[in-house]
Design brief:
Distance between the termini: 37 Å
Number of helices: 6
Structural class: mainly alpha
Shape: elongated
CATH architecture of one domain: Orthogonal Bundle
Largest sheet: none
Radius of gyration: 20 Å
Order of helices and strands: HHHHHH
């Protein structure tokens, strides 16, 4: 419980410093470049349904990304960037699991 309390205390102290205009240590967030989701999927040779099932992506979300209505974020964007670089390697890794 001591570690949890110490972590909460540090967070509260940082929030107070931030509120007062003080400096708060921040991690630099890496944002991967955007990808053409449809082009990535097509490079794998998979249909929308197969791609969504293979990579545990909601089919609706995949369709929105391909139409450009929405953009993938976070870990999904990282995964799509990795797939775009070497789709065969990623497919081999996923299929072995």
């Amino acid at each position: 419980m001591n570690k949890a309390f110490a972590s909460i205390k540090r967070g509260l102290e940082q929030a107070i410093r931030h509120r007062r205009g003080g400096r708060v240590a921040r991690l630099k967030l890496h944002v991967p470049p955007p990808v053409d989701v449809k082009a990535v999927r097509e490079r794998t040779g998979l249909t929308q349904e197969q791609f969504a099932a293979t990579f545990a992506i909601g089919l609706g979300a995949l369709r929105h990304w391909e139409r450009g209505d929405r953009k993938p974020r976070g870990a999904t964007l990282v995964l799509l960037n990795v797939i775009s670089k070497d789709p065969e390697a990623v497919l081999r890794a996923v299929r072995k699991a």
